[in-house]
Design a protein that fits this description.
By secondary structure, the protein is of the alpha+beta class. It has helices at residues 10-15, 24-28, 33-36, 75-96, 133-136, 147-158, and strands spanning 38-41, 45-49, 59-63, 100-104, 121-126. The longest helix has 22 residues, at 75-96.
């Protein structure tokens, strides 16, 4: 029998279903960038690694303003969100050479939002056949790169 050890997922597994009164994004933005993997801070939005990524390079573009609807986002913040999404697409294409890029927002619980109440845009590289049997049947992702390495690579590319 083979074993796949993923100890970093323990925090996620044990916190599933736990509700806190404070928004995770509003909390994270108050902490040091390297500690929480914020790769960029803009005027209206920041870019952060997804702590539980689907693929290496999975980032989120998050407005500082705590809003639960895209239509409520001020125009300047919406423009910056899209500009950062475009920038992250370019960075991810250069660093990871994916076959494609997923962009998406899940607004509200019914839409599949993992963080309800604070809109954010997912940007992640994808490869043909990256959803193999272990992802589909075992509900486990295999990531070839540690989050700290992903942080270092993306942050370095953004500083150029």
């Amino acid at each position: 029998m083979d074993y796949l050890w993923t100890p970093w997922r323990y925090a996620y597994i044990t916190s599933t279903g736990q509700k806190t009164s404070e928004c995770v994004f509003c909390q994270l933005v108050q902490r040091p960038d390297e500690e929480v993997h914020i790769v960029h801070r803009g005027e209206h939005c920041f870019v952060i690694l997804n702590a539980f990524p689907y693929t290496s390079g999975h980032v989120m573009v998050v407005p500082y303003q705590h809003l639960d609807q895209l239509q409520s986002l001020p125009e300047a913040a919406a423009q910056e969100m899209m500009a950062l999404t475009q920038r992250m697409e370019a960075v991810l294409r250069e660093l990871y050479r994916p076959d494609g890029i997923n962009l998406g927002m899940n607004i509200g619980k019914a839409a599949g939002a993992g963080v309800e109440g604070h809109i954010h845009m997912h940007v992640l590289p994808r490869w043909v056949a990256d959803a193999n049997f272990i992802s589909v049947v075992g509900e486990t992702r295999i990531l070839p790169e540690d989050l700290n390495e992903t942080y270092r690579r993306i942050r370095q590319k953004l500083s150029l």
